[in-house]
Queue: 2 jobs
Job 1
Amino acid sequence: MKRRKFIQNASLSSLALVSSSSLIACENKNTDSNDAIVGDLPVPTLPLVVATWNVPNATAAAWKALEEGKSALDAVEAGCRVEEADVKNQSVGKGGLPDRDGNVTLDACIMNKDGDYGAVVYLKDIVHPISVARKVMEKTPHVLMAGEGARQFAISEGHPMENLLTKSSKKAWEEWQKTSEYKPVINIENHDTIGMLAIDKNGDLAGACTTSGLAYKMAGRVGDSPIIGSGLFVDNEIGAATATGLGEEVLKTVGSFLIVELMRQGKSPQAACEEAIRRIVTKNKNHKDFQVGYIAVNKKGEVGAYSIHEWFSFMRYQDSKNENIKSEFFLKTQ
Ligand code: SD4
């Protein structure tokens, strides 16, 4: 049996861990990533789009925007919107798995080349939090809006209200209630929280991150994805990074900011992602029980990716090629 299968079958499917005060179960699914690994990456060319997980339609939409001469900011927004609208993606936007009380609450953030940032947290009833986050950045004097205020702002900007709990997500929630272990489940699957980074034809960077957070989280819980420096960080002089996985661990280590700062000090995107994962695993004896994955790009268009567990992959659209690439991972070295 392949090691990957072994880990999935024997270890992770039923694991639970204690993180802060909650029990968190890791659900896992196969990724259908190809066999390329990060080390195989070619000499970088621009423009470039990368995204967490296997989201070819999202990176294709972002690439199309770049090809049309649009900015990296436009590209990452366009890419994230694809996953937000995809009801099959149960960890982003419409169709996202709800919290324990059956409410789908969304978190998103976006950063541009000037270091501007906009974010929404605990947003209900709005399909495209990434576009609301961009409007927070561009149209308000604020950077982060939450809950009902964010929802009212979205409505005032013309975003229609919709019920985000699809039949299948409702069914999954009802199933969960039967055993009601009352713990959030990490969504580890092909489609997950989407973190996307792009460099446009001018060499400018932008990034975006959008999620429905942990499935069956406590009502009011917010993860890393909408928080600057944790789920996403962009510095147009240096590079950008974004995260997926157990947000509590990313928040505690301010992972994306850390990666960009390590690149500033001369590390490659790959080495920087590895160091950010190392910070998490050294502090957590139970790191085998949860997943965190990072991707990063530097100004040159070099890419890095690293995760704790094997089954993390990312998309890279470069040289007109849209590829899903398997990430290197910490447990391989153990
Ligand atoms: C969160 N980081 O809310 C997100 C969830 C995620 O793979 O990325 N799941 O903690």
Note: The radius of gyration is 18 Å.
Job 2
Amino acid sequence: MYKINDNYQKLPGSYLFSTIAKKVNAYSAANPDKKIIRLGIGDVTQPLAPAIIEAMHKAVDEMGAAETFRGYAPDLGYEFLRNAIVKNDYQARGCDIAADEIFVSDGAKSDSGNIQEIFAENNRIAVCDPVYPVYVDSNVMAGRTGTYDPKTEMWSDVIYMPCTMENNFVPEFPKETPDLIYLCLPNNPTGTTITKDQLQGWVDYANKAGAVIIYDAAYEAYISEENVAHSIYECEGAKTCAIELKSFSKNAGFTGVRLGYTVVPKELKCGEVSLNAMWARRHGTKFNGAPYIVQRAGEAVYSDAGKEQLKEQVAYYMKNAATIKDGLMKAGYMVFGGVNAPYIWLKTPDQMTSWEFFDYLLENANVVGTPGSGFGPSGEGYFRLTAFGSYENTLAALERIQKL
Ligand code: MLT
């Protein structure tokens, strides 16, 4: 008789955004006349930039002609894309990353869930609390997190680093030494970030502890302050302790197109074993590459026209962030984030729990947000709104919230 991976049985409830979608659909079905504004999941709403569309059209035509047709992509991704990434995302920032340290994928969500596979089952993971749920859930599936306590909503073998307004949402070095440290900066869900000096502190800590930092830089394009690192490799010593995950979803609107990449430096070694070689083996075995058309679209992100158009797109969403932040502050809310990230993190009013506020907002303003407690126990009493809606919807949502 076959056996299942019992670790899946340990997962509490369904994936956060599936739970929210179910609740919103039920409300919508019961109240078909209500116009719901969705500022929950961080999904983009602006169309793909013209430079990207043009590149995709051209690539589609190439796929339709025998001379230019392409089959399987190279394991690590096409060189034209990896070279553009190296030049623009690393060399331009003084980071010494080579094209064979870049692994092109179908997005940072898959990579952030898959990367734990190359580490032993008995590694201890440390996560910020609140945290993007994929980091924890993928480690639960792998059997690395121990037992779940429904009362504390914590896993026995996970090291939690609370990020609350008391510590300005800056994670502190944990008392117990972790093996793998997940950092998402600028942060999802709190929309806050840390300075480059603070990040250097984490790199030094990891190198000393013999730990690996899994650094999710999905929101890097939204950084507006000077003293914030765009890549962890801007920090000295990061190549011996950090893996960086990057997404095209948020900076270029690829949530439905799907493209990302992971950087595994060749200097990152466990004894004599190269993690770059391990990830290359894993990638080659389990992944057949992002589509050619999509990789050409990715290349267009780095063209002059693409850069210009995407700067405008990021500015559009950040105008929404400022609108939400100012509007909530005027309405008397305590508000965080929204300066270097497209997320606004607010304290729920009147001691409401995160889910109570979710229901209150849905029923009274017909606005959907994300309950902070869905990201971890320290998110209780907080709530997230995304700046990825249209400007018109963002304004309308704020008007409704201000009237409550
Ligand atoms: C979020 O809303 O947290 C993100 O959209 C989820 C994701 O990027 O997968």
Note: The pocket of D-malate is lined by residues 41-43, 109, 132, 188 (CB under 6 Å).
